[in-house]
Amino acid sequence: MADITLVRQEATEITEADRVVARRVIFSIVDGLGGTGRRQWRRFWNRVFKLEPGEMIDIKTHQARLGWFHRKHMALEQVLFEAQDKFETFEAFRTWLKVGSGFVDWYPGPKGGVIPVPRSISYSKLEQGDMEKFHGDAIDFLRTEHAGKTLWKHLSVTQRLDVLETILGNFGE
């Protein structure tokens, strides 16, 4: 979810003709869904146009997740978990994958250092663009020597790559 703060710049006069053109462009490209959505969208732009210099408005955006992409990623994690030898629980595997792919927030640790805290990939908390980035970073991490050695310590490098690429190939990766 993106939180955006807009601030009105210097007092530039916007002519009525410019407002008409701006509205025509804005509302012909994107509009609210249904009557209520259209009214809300127009009220929002009316407020934007009426801001005084230095006045701010905060907006929050959310791009809905694509169900098929979410299911694909979850299925890939499940297959990888079942194929690996290191982790006893799925949650431990997922935490390792998040940390390895850098999908974490960094917090002060109990002894003065910093610790990685994995972020949520919950369907409702992570929008599509961020999920795609995590997925790509996770795939890149899985292809590292460290990840292969962690998941399949008893296999040779070639065998690890074969197992991983077979699994990823089944998911179009």
Automatic annotation (TrEMBL):
InterPro entries reported for this sequence: DUF1367
Domain of life: Bacteria
The protein, known as: DUF1367 family protein
UniProt source species: Xylophilus rhododendri
